[in-house]
Each structure stands twice: as C-alpha cells, then as structure tokens.
From TrEMBL:
Pfam families: Peptidase_M19. SUPFAM superfamilies: Metallo-dependent hydrolases. InterPro entries: Metal_Hydrolase, Pept_M19. It comes from the Bacteria. GO terms for molecular function: metallodipeptidase activity. This is Membrane dipeptidase. It comes from Bittarella massiliensis (ex Durand et al. 2017).
Length: 306
C-alpha cells in the first residue's frame, strides 16, 4: 500500500513530549508506517495560537532542529527525490510543512529561511488571528502583510495552504495567489457544516487551479452528529469526486492533532479506509490516486519546476 499524507501533527507532538519519531505511542511513527511500500508524509510544525512574535519562530526552529536530530530520512527538497519515491527507489519521503503563519513573526524575510529549511506548505493562519490574517470565526480575511506573504511564498516555492482560513481569507488568498492552492486537511461543508470545511465553490477554485485537497479524518469535520467512521471519509471523497475532483483529492489525516474514528486509530489502520472507499464503489485506480498518485504527481511536477 502507498500513502501520501498532506498533514499530521506528529512532529510537534514528538518535540513537545520528547518522543522519538521512529518509535512512539502516537498515531504516526516511522515504525507504524513501515508496512507502507511508498510513503510521503507531510510533518507540520503546528504553531499554537498562544505564541506570537519571535516566540512563534523559536518554537518552529526547535521543532525543525528536533526533526534533524531524529533517526529519520532527510526532509524532501527536490523533485528527483519524489521521482525516486514514485519509482520505488526510496520508500519514505518526509516533507516539512508549517501550520500557522505566525511562524514568520511578521517578518517576510523569514519566508526565505523557511524555504531553505525545506518547508513546502504554509497555512496563513491557524484558528486565531495572527500577523498575516484574521481568525477563522471572523468575517475578515487576509491582512495586507498576509497578501504580501502569499506573493513571497510563491516566489520561494512555498505553497499557500488554505486549511484553517475563513471563507474571507480563502478568497483573499485566491485573489493574490498565482499558482495552485492546497487545502491540506479539510473536508466538504455540504456533508458537515463546519467552518474548517470547504464549500463546493471553494473546492472548484482549488480544482481549477490544479491544487490538492487532503481529506481530514477528524470526527468533527466528518459528520455533525455522532461518531464518524471510515465510511464517512469515503462519503466526503465521493462528494468531491462528483465535483470533478479525480485529480484533486488526496489525504490529510490530521493524525496526532485530532479525534480519530475508532476504526482508524493510527496509520497502521489505513487499509480500513481503502476498504471503506472500495465498499462505497470507488475504483482501485481512483483509490490509488487519492492515497498517493495525485499528491505525488503534483509535488514531483512542482518541485521539478523550481
Ligand atoms: Zn489543522
């Protein structure tokens, strides 16, 4: 089985708890994923809303240093590495991402530093307001510095990630960004009316720009009532597929940062998700596209062009 996961909070958890990435009791460890034949894993540095200014940047720095001190393969930098993964010449591609534009501490020159660290994606905000934008529950979008940041990110090859942005933030970002947009871990609002999910119209914007949407396994983003199951994730997949998302859909687990369905306790349980998709009539080739091919194609193409 292959996996390309656009979002997890495992690195931050490991760093905060002093745990090893290779082996731990979290939802993702390199050991738990060792059954995967080809595995690309985005490791987000999640910057909590309590941290602003240089404290946010220092927190990020500590997490990146923590990763580098682990017995883990180096972070993805070049398209050739993704190509090698796709050919099966390497098994694991760890990818560094950041959740929360507060990491910049309001200084756009930090975008270059992040790019040099290998950061591939950055969400402009988490849930609260920061130097770049307003919070998810406010009917305001990006601040002027946020618009500038999006341009600068594109210049340095860092993808703008719209997960956690409000609708206002989303459309502000879409108006500024010239390249593809990614929602690394968001579901369909039509099926679960949560501010973290995407409207059909937002999904169409991402699809038309050749971006990606990673399905989130968090129960609260899957259904409004009662416990969620892998079948609910399959339902969100079917909804996006019906909107022409064959090449847009990917996975964005949110492992180690959310409340997982009982049947999906950790990365080792992912075959249950593929089974649920198959049961709901999604074909094997499309499942493979969601699980790996769409995101792998996207990142190989993208990294090769920089
Ligand atoms: Zn998140």
């Amino acid at each position: 089985m292959d996996l390309f996961d656009l979002h997890c909070d495992t690195l931050t958890s490991c760093c905060n708890k002093g745990l090893s990435l290779a082996e731990n009791e979290l939802e993702i460890s390199l050991q738990k994923g060792s059954y995967l034949e080809r595995w690309a894993q985005c490791f987000a540095v999640f910057v909590p809303d309590e941290l602003r200014g240089e404290a946010a940047y220092d927190y990020y720095r500590r997490a990146v240093d923590y990763y580098r001190a682990q017995a883990a393969p180096p972070l993805l930098r070049e398209g050739a590495e993704m190509a090698a993964l796709r050919r099966g010449e390497r098994r694991l591609c760890p990818i560094l991402t950041v959740e929360g534009g507060a990491v910049l501490a309001g200084r756009l020159e930090r975008i270059q530093t992040l790019a040099e660290d290998g950061v591939q994606m950055l969400t402009i905000t988490w849930n609260g307001e920061n130097e770049l934008g307003w919070g998810i529950s406010e009917n305001r979008g990006l601040k002027p510095l946020g618009r500038e940041a999006v341009r600068e990110m594109e210049r340095w090859g860092i993808l703008p990630d719209v997960s956690h942005l409000s609708q206002w933030g989303f459309y502000d970002l879409a108006a500024v960004a010239e390249g593809p947009i990614v929602a690394s871990h968001s579901n369909a609002k039509a099926l679960c009316n949560h501010p973290r999910n995407l409207t059909d119209e937002q999904f169409a914007v991402i699809r038309d720009r050749g971006g990606l949407v990673g399905l989130n396994y968090n129960q609260g983003f899957l259904r409004e009532d009662g416990p969620a199951t892998p079948d609910d994730i399959a339902e969100h997949a079917l909804h996006f597929l019906a909107l022409g998302g064959e090449k847009t859909l990917a996975l964005g687990s949110d492992f180690d940062g959310a409340e997982m369905p009982q049947q999906l306790p950790d990365i080792a349980a992912l075959p249950a998700l593929a089974d649920a998709m198959a049961r709901r009539g999604i074909g094997p080739q499309q499942i493979q596209a969601i699980f790996f091919d769409n995101a792998a194609d996207f990142f190989e193409r993208r990294l090769s062009s920089f």
